[in-house]
Amino acid sequence: MRQGAWNRVAVSRKRRRSPGVYRRRETMFKSLKDDIDAVFARDPAARSRIEVVLCYPGIHALVFHRPAHALWRRGWTLAARFLSQWGRFMTGIEIHPGARIGRRFFIDHGMGVVIGETTEIGDDVTLYQGVTLGGVSLNPGKRHPTLEDGVVVGANALVLGPFTVGKGARIGSNAVVLKEVPPGATMVGMAARIAGPAAVRRAPEDDCFPAYATAPGNGTEHPLLRTIDRLSARLEALEHRLLEQEERRERGTQDGAGEAERAAV
Q1: Which fold has domain 2-217?
Q2: In which order are the strands placed within the sheet that holds 186-188?
């Protein structure tokens, strides 16, 4: 009789837990569906859901990370690290199970991406290959960046430190960001600086996705391009001055020849 009572208690506890378990599973699958939808919104090469599920390493990395993060939050850290390590082995993308990642997260190409333990990522964020969201200290607390909604980080960029990258900001390829980024700003260079004015709101007709965190034609070109433009303008000015000097020399030669002819007469 005592054994039967224990069985009834176990069944009762299982029933009480079941709704929460189902809700967590439903939330996890909903997050995965949102991640797949984000691929179609930002990658014109995506043709079908089955292709995205089978062939996109960014999706595979999230399939490993979502349950690993759930394990991490419940204190099963070793199991979480083991699962995330398998994800790294399978995809080439390293996401610490402690990292908090929002909805519709997209990693394009993916190889070499590293996301640290205390990283926080908002909704609709995009990372390209080789991005590192890392720390610069041994502080066991918050030491990795926070990316707010809509941030785009270009290929091979480094975002290092416990600061915030504001909503809608873009970080150019190969940039090294070591300080706070205002909302809507575009960061380029090493160490990165703001290129052009920050603009949180975009024009309603601007519905294109800024691949690789670039925005040609709006004053946010790469500094190397601006340097080349300045050198080209300087070269044109020097050529113009050289032509003027040659014209004056020719006129002087002609005037000297005319005076010589008049003197001979």
Answers
A1: UDP N-Acetylglucosamine Acyltransferase; domain 1 (2.160.10)
A2: 106-107, 126-127, 152-153, 170-171, 186-188, 193-194
Domain boundaries in the chain? Answer: 2-217, 222-265
Q: Along the 265 residues of the chain, how does pLDDT read in single tens digits?
A: 455 554 554 445 544 554 554 455 667 778 888 889 889 989 889 899 999 999 999 999 999 999 999 999 999 999 999 999 999 999 999 999 999 999 999 999 989 999 999 999 999 999 999 999 998 888 889 999 999 999 999 999 999 999 999 999 999 999 999 999 999 999 988 766 666 655 544 544 454 545 555 554 444 455 666 777 788 888 888 988 999 888 888 887 776 666 666 666 6
Reported pTM: 0.66
